[in-house]
Amino acid sequence: MELVREVVYRGVTVLMVDYSGIVGVPELRDAVRRANDQVRGYPPTRSLRVLVDCTGLPYSLDRAEILRKSAEENAPYVRARALVGLNRLAQRLVEAFAGLTGRPLRSFEDAESALDWLAEQ
Questions:
Q1: DSSP letter assigned to residue 12
Q2: Host domain of residue 17
Q3: What is the share, in percent, of the chain residues with pLDDT greater than 90?
Q4: Is this model's pTM higher than 0.85 or not?
Q5: Order of strands, edge to edge, in the sheet holding 12-18?
Q6: What is the Cα–Cα distance from 18 to 50, expressed in whole angstroms?
Q7: What is the domain count for the chain?
């Protein structure tokens, strides 16, 4: 599967970012850099809706920091971000981060629920 692909769901364009199965921190860092480059190819109008698949991505503080920095750096481009494939601890941290920043960011059990939410944002 492509790292980043654009899909239309219920008439809304969503960028799907696939980090599933990435285990190593260096590989994640590289994938995030490449995905960020693609996000920055869009105008900085806070209009992108992004679905990030983290299935199989082990949780660690290093990985969480890489993803947090990515979200921060892409803030001018992204209206809302949804994540799938996180374990319970990571889901709680995502919700806490969203509460602190006030940005639309949620974790979901499956991609369809995430896409439904993103389409409403």
A1: E
A2: 4-120
A3: 63
A4: yes
A5: 4-9, 12-18, 48-53, 78-84, 105-108
A6: 11
A7: 1
